[in-house]
Specification:
The chain is mainly alpha-helical. The protein has 13 helices and no strands.
Length: about 350
């Protein structure tokens, strides 16, 4: 395990990214009644479902370092333009998905209810700010910046009733409502889970992934890489657990304890994957399906969102679920089976792209 790292180290990252995207598609596409573990926590607390999106942000940070290090982190006009262009593209695609959902149901001009903040929009903003830091700031300030962002966000939560389940007093909800009408915001919880102020914590999340990406690139041996990731995992998990006594785990507000805990768990999984896949060089047959998801991660996520809209509008999802439910009587198990079928449909699309070496970079 002391051999120098090779370019093959990226396989573990692709596989983990693929597992995360497959998980995102799975938990987003149950039908009817789902198991509690496949639902987001209502407020404080954390379920397995609450891991998938933060894992994606963490992995994005790791990938950013790996990619940008090859170009020497040069903040040229062309590079910054590319970063801004990609951020805008992701944000617009996020808006377009929600517009399409309204359009297929006969409300294409109902812009008063177009949701502004959502998953792709959060990804876009976090990518933009983390990339600008990576390109324009000295990396010796990486850890202080992460700590600083989490401290600032903690102060905001404490001073602004950030844990209040009341949109009228919660500062996160009040900021979003001041900028946009309620029709543009998520309505199933007091706080929009991808709202603007929470981006502060989200950027810290990506930068923690960026830090782990630096460990993967700069450590000279596989053993050093794996141990470094395990150390980060231990520090973050313990830190998140201790912090949760004063600042409970909460996905809706992307609490600092939630950032540390989910980054720690993802770092732990990345260390394990790096050891098994890159260090022990296990057979590709063991992870090929996840690699297919990982090579076109964002494209397949967008595809799944579009398919879900079309399936819902034209009753395809109902037909598939009814067929499953006729065999699987228990509603929760039938819902899980439907979600797995939906994942397989997206895998078939991803495999077709992978087979023809088509890799879509959004």
């Amino acid at each position: 395990m002391n051999q120098p790292a090779s370019s093959q180290r990226l396989i573990a990252l692709d596989v983990l990214r693929g597992l995360t995207v497959a998980g995102m598609i799975l938990v987003n596409n149950g039908y009817g009644e789902s198991f509690a573990m496949l639902q987001h926590s209502r407020w404080n607390g954390m379920t397995p479902c609450d891991l998938v999106f933060p894992f994606f942000l963490f992995i994005m940070g790791v990938s950013m370092y790996v990619s940008m290090s090859r170009r020497g982190f040069q903040p040229t006009v062309a590079v910054i333009r590319k970063v801004v262009k990609r951020s805008v593209l992701l944000f617009v695609i996020g808006l377009a998905i929600h517009w399409l959902d309204m359009a297929v149901w006969g409300n294409p001009l109902d812009f008063a209810h177009l949701r502004i903040w959502a998953v792709l929009q959060r990804i876009a903003l976090c990518y933009l700010f983390a990339s600008l830091f990576a390109l324009c700031c000295n990396h010796r300030y990486l850890l202080p910046t992460i700590v600083g962002l989490l401290v600032v966000y903690t102060v905001i939560l404490i001073a602004g009733n950030g844990y209040a389940e009341d949109a009228s007093v919660n500062i996160l909800a009040r900021v979003d409502q001041a900028l946009f009408s309620p029709g543009h915001l998520y309505t199933k919880s007091p706080v929009d889970p991808e709202g603007l102020v929470g981006t502060i914590s989200g950027v810290a999340h990506v930068l923690l992934g960026f830090y782990c990406g630096r460990l993967l690139v700069t450590r000279s041996t596989m053993e050093q890489k794996v141990i470094s990731l395990f150390v980060v995992a231990a520090v973050c998990i313990v830190g998140g657990y201790l912090l949760s006594y004063g600042l409970p785990l909460n996905k809706r507000i992307w609490s600092p304890s939630y950032v540390l805990m989910t980054c720690g768990l993802c770092s732990l999984l990345l260390a394990l994957f790096t050891y098994v896949i890159d260090g022990l060089a296990c057979s590709p047959r063991c992870y090929r399906a996840l690699q297919v998801f990982g090579m076109n991660a964002l494209a397949l996520y967008v595809c799944s969102e579009l398919l879900a809209i079309v399936f819902g509008r034209f009753a395809v999802s109902t037909a598939i679920y009814d067929a499953i439910h006729s065999i699987v009587a228990a509603p929760k198990w039938a819902s899980l089976a439907y979600a797995l079928v939906f994942v397989l449909i997206n895998y078939a699309i991803g495999h077709l792209l992978w087979r023809h070496k088509v890799f879509i970079k959004l």
